[in-house]
Amino acid sequence: MAAALPPGPGRTLRTLLVYGPGRNPLAFFSGLAATYGDISFTYMASERLCLLNHPRLVKDVLVTHQKNFRKGRGLERAKRLLGEGLLTSEGTVHLRQRRLMQPAFHKDRIAGYSQVMTSQAEQQQAAWHDGEPVDMAREMTRLTLAIVGKTLFDADVESEARNVGDALTAVLDTFWISMLPLIDVLERLPLPALRRGKAARAELDRIIYGMIADRRRDLHDRGDLLSMLLMAQDEEADGAGMSDQQVRDEAMTIFLAGHETTANALSWMFYLLSQSPEIEQAWHHELEAVLGDRVPTLDDIGRLPLTEQIITETMRLYPPAWVIGRRAIDDYPVGDYVVPARTIVLVSPYLLQRDARYFPEPQRFLPSRWTPESKASLPPFAYFPFGGGTRRCIGEQFAWMELMLVAATIGRRWSFRVDPSHPVEPQPVVTLRMKHGLKGTLHLRPQ
C-alpha cells in the first residue's frame, strides 16, 4: 500500500488559477493552512508543494533533518541573478563560502559599522522638510543602499541608488514568471518583462564588477566585506582565494539582500507606527529620555527596549523573508504522511508568526507582547524571521544593529503619516515588499 500524501486540494484548476504569476500567494497559503491544518499538499504547475505550519515541523526541516533538503525552486531560480552566492549555493560550496565570509560578520567588526549607519541616516534626513510628501519605501531603500555600499563595500553608491532600485524592481517583477516550468523556452522569446529583467541583471553586474575591478587595482584591507572577500584564503582547505566570479556572487547577494530586506522592515515599521499613534508617542518618549538631542550610538541599543519591541513586532507581522523553501532529496515522513522526494517543502514565517496559538490577537500590532517572559514561553521556530539551522542569515546581527540605529536616528526627529488615499499592500516576491510603495508626509517633531 502506497504511503499517504498529506491532505490538500490536489491538482485542481483553482490551484493553478489562484497560485500563479500575479496572484496572491499570501492568501492562497493562508487558506491552505486554515483548511487543511499544519501539514498540507498541493501543486504549482508541475511542482509538488508541501506546506508545514507548526514550529516543531519547521525545526525538523531547517535543523533536525536539514541534510535531506536542498534549496527550493525560488532560490534555484535566484541563481540567475545571485550565482553561487551564500544564499543559493549548496553542500561543500556553501560551507566553504560561509567559512570565508564569517569573519566579516564578527560582532567586533560589525560594531565598527555603527557610526556609518547613523551618519548616513543623518545625511539623508537633513534633506527632508516638514510637511514634505515622500515615498517612505523609496527613502528607506535609498538609505539602506547607501549604508550597505559604505559599510560592506566602502563605496558611495548613493549616486547609483535609482539605477539599482529600478534594476532590482525589474528583476523581482519577473520572479513569478521565472517559476514557470518552461522559463528556459520563454526567455528566448521577446517578452518585455523578461527583456527588462535581463537588462537589469546586466546593470547590477556592471556595478558589482566595477567595484571589484577598482579594488583589485588597489588591494588593501579597508575594513569592509569586499576587502575580506578579495583577500580571504581558505586555510582549512587548499588555501586558495575566490575568483572574481565567486566574489561577484557573494557581493551581489550581500549587496541586494543587505539593503532590500532592511528597507522593507523599516518601511513596514513606519507604516505600522503611523496607524498606532499611542505606540508612536510612547516610542518618541523613549527616544527623548535616552537620547535627548544626540545621535544614537552602539551603546544605546540595549537602552531602547521599546524600539527593539517595535522592530520585533514589525518583523512578526511583515517578515522580509516571508517564505522559506526546501526541496526534499528523499521521501520525507512527516506525521502520518510521506512527502515524495523532490517535493518543495515550504515553511512560512508570515503564516506561523500570525498564528493565534502562539500570538494572541495575531493581526494586531502589539509591541508590548515582546516581554522577556513571553519570548521565553514561545516554542523554538514560532518566530523565525532570519530562518534557522546552518543556513540562518549570516547578516542577522548586522541587520538588527542597522534597524535599531536607523529607526532611532530618524524617530528622534521625525514622524510619518500615510496618505489616507494611498493603498498599502504587501507584494510577496523574494522578499515582502510594498506593492505600491508608501506615500505620505513627513512631520518634524518639536525639539
Task: Give the key terms.
447 residues, globular, 19 helices, 3-stranded antiparallel β-sheet, 50% helix, 5-stranded mixed β-sheet, Cytochrome p450, alpha+beta
Task: Write up this protein.
It is a single chain. By secondary structure, the protein is an alpha+beta fold. It has a single domain, classed as Cytochrome p450 (Orthogonal Bundle). Helices cover 50% and strands 11% of the residues. It has a 5-stranded mixed beta sheet. Strands 4-12-9 form a 3-stranded antiparallel beta sheet. Strands 6-7 form a two-stranded antiparallel sheet. Strand 6 and strand 7 form a beta hairpin. The chain is globular. The model has no long low-confidence stretch (mean pLDDT 83).
Total individual domains = 1
- What is the averaged pLDDT score? 83
User: Which structural class matches the secondary elements?
Assistant: alpha+beta
Arrangement of strands in the largest sheet: 1-2-8-5-3
Give the distance, in angstroms, between the N- and C-terminal Cα atoms: 74 Å
Low-confidence stretches: none
CATH homologous superfamily caption: Cytochrome P450
Report helical residue fraction.
Answer: 40-55%
- The shape, in one word, is globular
Number of helices: 19
- Looking at how many chains there are and whether they match, the oligomeric state comes to single chain
CATH class: Mainly Alpha
Strand content: 5-15%
CATH-derived topology: Cytochrome p450
